[in-house]
Write a structure and sequence with these properties.
It contains two helices and 48 strands. Strands 31, 33, 34, 36, 37, 39, 42 and 43 form an eight-stranded mixed sheet that branches. A hairpin with a 2-residue loop joins strand 24 and strand 25. The chain is elongated and about 210 Å long.
């Protein structure tokens, strides 16, 4: 970088020397100033021309102290060249010749702020005389980024004088930087009673400058949204640069000129039971109090908000917000209207419950007073039955009986609804609901449970009886679903039997028979198995066998009396002891032939006719 700067200087100086060479014996040309950053190397060029190139040339370098004195730092002639000791530059300067041109360059390394001096190049020729040139060295240091701090307290637009807005500071720059204040990208200049900018600077021990600027102005309401910042302008070699601070905002207090009031919550229409928030705000921000007036009541507002919990239709009406400025005691007013929608409980006619005869018609109504349009739907057993506030039931049957619920809703407000119920009873004789199976088989000595579902109105009286005339006591009796009575009986099975469920009320009776067959439990012994059929069959077989034996005995006795089975002619003496006259044994044998033997009263065998 230094080499390029030096070459450019030399070319410029040569052009000038060719122009001046015609009228000067020794001509020296140097730039008015050389600029560089602190810590860099500064090249100072010295160009000269001679009319007579023969003879000794003496070159010396000087600097001018801050007191105005010349202080030599370098000497050179045809035989010697040296730097003078005990100078601030003894260890930091070098002198380089330019080669084919008549000129030299003084290089000052590690430039410091104290090096910002005037340097002299003196050329003496034995025949052409003496001439000198001068260059001022300028040193630059880039400052730190500026910092800004705004006031923490609010500023009132009612202040008569300018108020401090903030302070901007930039440190460690050289030369001294400049500060300009901006509001919304527009520069602020001193203006009497409106804008005041005060700047001050400090020289640090390092020789660098720190600049502080304070902005004061008479604030306006629009300044509440304004951005303030400062711009720092500083110098560098060959140009001017700038940097900006962060923006700041200020709090501006300004009185209200109008006040606004509104219902914040809930959004939309209001219904009874809601919590309502009424907000009230002025368009200013100076300290003020807010109150709400409604009818003869007055409410203090917390954080500019009034909360009304669980409102009713009585809370409807006008609410007036009152704004009071604490500084000026000026009052402002704003009204807001609150309307609370309502829906009264549903009224069902006829009330409670109603009895209707079988086959008759019933009409019921359901109404609810509301501030809005309503819709009515009737439900039975959780299912929609009909729409409209009138319920019509025609040709009433068992299925007509039950509980009907009317639901009244407000379409404009989803959660707004009420309901009422009507219990319908159909006057009818009992009806026993027949189960799938009434033929029951159960083992001896086991307990059987019988269930009987009965419906009817008034509620039927249910009893249990058996085919042998016994009355059974119900184990339990309860209403399972609306209008249906469940009666349960339990008893031990000891024989085939029929049980009856009997239901009755003032309109009639009904009965249902359960046929129960007793089954004998199967056992491994005896080996012969009794066919399934019940005890009655076994008894019948035994009776038939006895009758057959009796008939056979009568036949044999008849034949005996007739002498058909004696084997001899003549009658047998049957006048034995009376106690033995019935001791007749019939023995049946079978081995390819049959032989019937009649034992007499004396125990003798009597052969039969062959």
């Amino acid at each position: 970088m230094a080499g390029r700067d030096t070459g450019a200087l030399l070319v410029g100086l040569l052009v000038l020397f060719h122009t001046w060479g015609a009228w000067a014996a020794v001509q020296v040309y140097m730039e008015d100033r050389v600029e560089t950053f602190r810590g860099k190397t500064a090249p100072i060029a010295c160009m000269f021309t001679l009319n007579d190139s023969i003879g000794e040339v003496v070159m010396q370098w000087f600097y001018v102290t801050r007191g105005g004195e010349k202080q030599r730092i370098y000497f050179q002639n045809s035989t010697v060249k040296f730097k003078l000791p005990d100078t601030p530059f003894a260890d930091r300067i070098t002198v380089n010749e330019t080669g084919g041109t008549s000129g030299v360059v003084l290089n000052i390394a590690d430039v410091q702020l104290s090096d910002e001096l005037e340097f002299i190049c003196l050329i003496r020729h034995i025949t052409d005389g003496t001439a000198e040139g001068r260059t001022k060295l300028k040193v630059f240091v880039t400052p730190d980024r500026p910092t800004i701090e705004g006031v923490q307290t609010g500023i009132s637009v009612t202040e008569l004088k300018t108020s401090k807005i903030g302070t901007c500071e930039v440190k460690n720059g050289y030369p001294k930087p400049n500060i300009t204040w901006y509001r919304n990208k527009m520069p602020l200049r001193n203006e009497p009673d409106e804008v005041k900018v005060m700047s001050s600077s400090t020289t640090e021990s390092s020789g660098l400058f720190s600049v502080t600027s304070e902005l004061s102005l008479k604030v306006k309401e629009e300044d509440k949204d304004a951005e303030f910042y400062c711009e720092v302008t500083y110098f560098v070699p060959g140009e001017t640069r700038m940097t900006e601070s962060d923006p700041i905002n200020i709090t501006v207090y300004y009185p209200s000129t109008a006040v606004n009031a509104w219902v914040e919550l809930p959004k939309g229409k209001i219904k009874e039971g809601d919590s309502v928030e009424i907000h009230c705000y002025g368009n200013g921000n100076t300290p003020a109090t807010y109150t709400i007036k409604h009818k003869a009541m007055e409410f203090n507002m917390d954080l500019n908000m009034l909360v009304l919990n669980n409102v009713t239709r009585l809370d409807s009406g006008n609410y007036q917000c009152v704004y009071l400025d604490i500084d000026t005691y000026e009052e402002l007013y704003k009204d807001v209207t609150l309307f609370v929608n309502y829906l009264d409980p549903a009224v069902v006619m006829p009330k409670g419950s109603v009895e209707v005869a079988q086959g008759a018609e019933l009409m019921a109504t359901c109404n609810a007073l509301s501030s809005l349009q309503t819709e009515t739907v009737w439900f039975k057993d959780g299912q929609e039955f009909s729409k409209g506030h009138i319920l019509t039931l025609k040709d009433a049957t068992f299925d007509t009986a039950g509980t009907y619920t009317c639901v009244v809703t407000v379409p404009e407000i989803e959660e707004m609804q009420t309901s009422g119920t009507l219990h319908v009873y159909v006057q009818s004789p009992p009806e026993i609901m027949k189960p799938d199976n009434t033929e029951i088989e159960e083992s001896f000595e086991n307990t059987v449970d019988l269930r009987c579902h009965v419906r009817g109105f008034p509620a039927p009286n249910v009893t249990w009886s058996t085919s042998d005339g016994k009355v059974l006591k119900s184990a339990s009796q309860q209403e399972t679903v609306e209008g249906v009575l469940l009666s349960v009986v339990s008893f031990k099975v000891t024989s085939d039997i029929t049980a009856f469920c009997n239901a009755s009320n003032e309109y009639g009776t009904d009965a249902l028979a359960f046929n129960i067959k007793a089954i004998k439990a199967e056992t491994p012994n005896p080996p012969k198995k009794i066919k399934k059929g019940g005890n009655g069959v076994v008894i019948a077989v035994i009776i038939i066998c006895i009758l057959l034996l009796a008939i056979l005995g009568s036949v044999l006795y008849y034949l005996y009396k007739k002498g058909k089975i004696c084997g001899r002619s003549g009658k047998q003496d049957l006048t034995k002891e009376k106690s033995n006259k019935d001791n007749i044994v019939v023995e049946m044998k079978s081995d390819n032939t049959e032989e019937a033997v009649l034992l007499g009263v004396n125990g003798e065998k009597l052969p039969s006719d062959q």
